[in-house]
Amino acid sequence: DTRRPITSGSVACKVLVAGKTVPAKGRIAAGVGRCTFDVPASARGAAVRGTITVRSGGNAVSARFAFVAR
């Protein structure tokens, strides 16, 4: 991780809500990797966990995230 803006590459996202996979889309925007996904309204209070992987310039960096849906 160089902390420099990303200008090209790919982003992969894996997201679980209450242990079930939800569709997620990864993209590069404003020099960073981003994941977008919808948490179902019925999942209020459920754990949301995921991984984002950014590949650029022959390197890959992954990060995990987790939060409780409100």
Order of helices and strands: EEEEEE
Structural Rg: 13 Å
Q: Strand-residue fraction?
A: over 45%
Helix proportion = under 10%
Describe the protein in words.
The chain is mainly beta. 0% of the residues lie in helices and 61% in strands. It contains no helices and 6 strands. It is elongated, with a radius of gyration of 13 Å. The model has no long low-confidence stretch (mean pLDDT 94).
Topology readout:
Layout: E1 10-17, E2 20-22, E3 24-29, E4 32-37, E5 47-56, E6 59-68
Essential attributes:
single chain; 70 residues; elongated; four-stranded antiparallel β-sheet; 0% helix; mainly beta; 61% strand
Quick overview of this protein structure:
With 70 residues, this protein is mainly β.
